[in-house]
Amino acid sequence: MSTHDWEGLERSPEFQELVTQRRRFVVPALAVFGAWFGGFLVLTAYARDFMRRTPIGSFSWAYILALSLIVMTWLIAWLYLRWCDRHLAPLADRVNHEEERR
């Protein structure tokens, strides 16, 4: 049974590049999600009259914004999967290849 040098792998330049690239997507996506969700919570707490208005039929702004949170979450997940296939998967393959050579 082989043992792996996990600390060595973590210090490798390939793994560091993988972590850096992942953060390039995750941090902005988290900021967008946090701002959108936080804005929704603030509007829900302090702009009740606005949230009661019905701009589309019987749908209030509260329903529209709540549904937009669901759509935004799925959109971020879809974009992350596409981004990973293009950017992270090749880097992960390089990390695996370098680890197998050790």
Model description:
This protein is mainly α and 102 residues long. The chain has one domain (13-101). The protein is built from four helices and no strands. The protein has helices spanning 6-11, 13-46, 48-52, 61-101. The radius of gyration is 21 Å and the shape is elongated. The two termini are 15 Å apart.
What key phrases describe this protein's structure?
102 residues, mainly alpha
The gist of it:
By secondary structure, this protein is mostly helical.
**How much of the residues is beta strand, in percent?**
under 5%
Discrete helix count: 4
N to C succession of SSEs: HHHH
Distance between the termini: 15 Å
Give me the Rg, rounded: 21 Å
Low-confidence stretches: none
Shape: elongated
* Count of the separate structural domains: 1
Largest sheet: none
Tally of extended strands? 0
Task: Report the mean per-residue pLDDT as an integer.
Answer: 90
Structural class: mainly alpha
Helix content: over 70%
Quaternary organization: single chain
